[in-house]
Inverse folding.
């Protein structure tokens, strides 16, 4: 099957059953444990067969904003998902030139997979609130179920009213994921401040951030794992606080 070649799981071989493929769409700059817990919750709650983590190529709403390269975001996503048998990281969007629109992504996936494979596009509820304004939103509604992941205390009002007032027939499931109180911006801030990322993202991701000096991290001769917290890489770590 073609899908093997492009790092997507082969699904749909048994024509007597349907398959449910989760697609975790996000910038993942960087990926963190909130994303991983979220995908695992969706896997259980929606009885998914596999979850594909798809770092956004050139995110439509991030034009002009500073985002790490697709290569770095993909590498961290691969490291973070490598030990889970039902998670797969894909280059599907990062290898696509130009701005990547979700409607195009879903259509390309639809063309690749047989009809007995259903798509569940999982992303943050903030993004779901904007989905009605995405390019070809009608195609997004037709091609996938949507899963909006929320942090505890998150007000769903904006997302719900946007979906309800849309002329398109979106099928949305909301999933509250306590671990999503972690955010990528919080991790970036901690790196900038020289603080620990331990328990916020898998250690190999922390190592990658320091090795490649992302988010203002400083490299050291011995790498991130040489210090007390497994994350510090620069000089001047005075207080020893994580
Ligand atoms: P975002 O606006 O950066 O993120 C919105 C919120 O959702 C943030 O709090 C973010 O937290 C969280 N989030 C993002 N992805 C998540 C995921 N998979 N699971 C749980 N929480 C998640 O959104 P974005 O990352 O740019 O875009 C999300 C997805 O929507 C991407 O696949 C993107 O390509 C797609 N999108 C498509 C269009 C379009 O087709 N026109 C436009 C916008 C977005 P963190 O920062 O901690 O991740």
């Amino acid at each position: 099957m073609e899908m093997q070649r492009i790092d997507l799981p082969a699904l749909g071989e048994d024509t007597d059953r349907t398959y449910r493929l989760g697609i975790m769409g996000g910038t993942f700059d960087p990926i963190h444990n909130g994303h991983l817990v979220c995908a695992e919750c969706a896997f259980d709650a929606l009885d998914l067969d596999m979850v594909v983590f798809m770092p956004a190529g050139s995110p439509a709403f991030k034009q002009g904003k500073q985002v790490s390269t697709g290569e770095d975001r993909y590498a961290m996503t691969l490291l973070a998902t490598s030990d889970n048998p039902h998670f797969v990281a894909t280059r599907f969007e990062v290898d696509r030139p130009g701005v990547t629109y979700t409607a195009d992504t879903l259509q390309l996936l639809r063309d690749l997979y047989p009809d007995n494979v259903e798509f569940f596009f999982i992303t943050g509820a903030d993004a779901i609130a904007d989905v009605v304004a995405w390019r070809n939103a009608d195609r997004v509604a037709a091609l996938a179920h949507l899963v909006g992941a929320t942090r505890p205390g998150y007000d769903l009002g904006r997302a719900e009213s946007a979906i309800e007032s849309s002329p398109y027939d979106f099928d949305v499931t909301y999933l509250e994921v306590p671990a999503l109180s972690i955010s990528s911006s919080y991790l970036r801030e901690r790196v900038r401040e020289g603080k620990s990322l331990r328990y916020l993202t898998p250690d190999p991701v922390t190592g990658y951030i320091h090795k490649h000096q992302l988010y203002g991290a400083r490299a050291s001769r011995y790498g991130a794992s040489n210090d007390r917290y497994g994350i510090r890489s620069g000089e001047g770590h005075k207080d020893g606080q994580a």
Summary: Residues 24-27, 35, 38, 56, 59-62, 100-103, 122-124, 126-127, 134-135, 149, 180, 183-185 surround NAP (CB under 6 Å). The beta strands are 19-26, 50-55, 87-89, 117-124, 145-150, 172-176. The radius of gyration is 19 Å.
